[in-house]
Amino acid sequence: METSLHQQLKAHYAGDDGEVEVRLGRYRIDVVRDDRLIEIQHGGLAAIRDKVRSLCKQHRVLVVKPIVATKTLIKCKQKGGRVVSRRRSPKRGELLDLFDELVHFTRAFPHRNLTLEAAMVEVEEWRYPGHGKRRRWRKNDFVVEDQKLVDVVRVHRLQSRQDLLGLLPADLPQPFNTAQLAEGLGKPRWVAQRIAYCLREMGAAKPVGKQGNAILYKTIRRQPASAASRKRAG
User: Fold this and answer.
1) 63/23 same-domain check
2) Domain count, the chain
3) Cα(first)–Cα(last) distance of the chain, in Å?
4) Does residue 145 share a domain with residue 80?
5) Pairwise CA distance, residues 119 & 42, whole Å
6) Nearest to 87, CA basis, from 74, 69, 78, 70
7) Where among 159, 192, 214 does a domain terminate?
8) CA dist 103 → 9, 19, 41, 48, 117 (Å)
9) Local confidence pLDDT in tens for the 234 residues of the chain
10) Can you tell me whether residue 7 is helix, strand or coil?
11) Domain DUF8091, which positions (predicted)?
12) How many CB atoms neighbour CB 72 within 10 A?
């Protein structure tokens, strides 16, 4: 069942002049605005990877990936019942969470016709007890009835390999290993390993050797046009 969050984001991106739920060949498109197809994917990007690759052959596509920056948990006595409590969830989403999905999207991004937009959102999550109204709340003992959009806090657009590099620490050494990347980001090493995989598969970094057992990577930055022209001229 489609959540209120998905419906509200479709309305947000459609604006006053867009169309929602448009049939295009064998696909249904969330939003069509001007000459751009917009897909809003709250679930995993892997689920729409092949669809996006197909659409990008002939169309400009914007994929919107909502990331829940803040969440208010609203508990109801029962499904559709009165609210019994509200509290702010301690969990906070962040932009780097996007790599959790990009690891399954390397065959689709980057593409000249594709823009990926991470939408940091504030939501309300409506819940009710999962084992009957008389049972006390326990950890994970709930059913999520709906998620509702409160605000789009900010958006971050990715259109190229260079945009991926903009998410890395400015002082990252060259070359670097995933331990250094993890330290620079303030994240566990497994997160850095996932990011390094995405960078390599998307052509934003390449392995250049090893330091002990650690693979060394070097980012691939686009050469300025003027410098490239001078190089060709020489």
Assistant:
1) yes
2) 2
3) 61
4) yes
5) 10
6) 74
7) 159
8) 24, 31, 15, 13, 16
9) 689 999 999 999 999 999 999 999 999 999 999 999 999 999 999 999 999 999 999 999 999 999 999 999 999 988 888 999 999 999 999 999 999 999 999 999 999 999 999 999 999 999 998 765 455 555 567 899 999 999 999 999 999 999 999 999 999 999 999 999 999 999 999 999 999 999 999 999 999 999 999 999 999 987 554 444 444 444
10) helix
11) 3-158
12) 15
Give the tokens for residue 48: 């729409």
Q: What amino acid is encoded at 57 in this protein?
A: K
Reduced to 3 states (helix: H, G, I; strand: E, B; else coil), residue 47 is helix
C-alpha to C-alpha distance for 157 and 138, rounded to whole angstroms: 39
How many C-beta atoms lie closer than 10 Å to residue 89's C-beta?
12
List beta partners, residue 161.
Answer: none
Angle among Cα 189, 168, 9 to the nearest 5 degrees reads 100
What DSSP character marks residue 97?
Answer: G
Dihedral sign, Cα of residue 40, residue 43, residue 46, residue 48: negative
- The helix/strand/coil state of 200 is helix
Sign of the CA dihedral 62, 67, 71, 76?
A: positive
- For the domain that residue 188 is a member of, what is the CATH number? 1.10.10
**Diameter of the chain measured on Cα atoms:** 80
Q: What's the chain's length in residues? A: 234
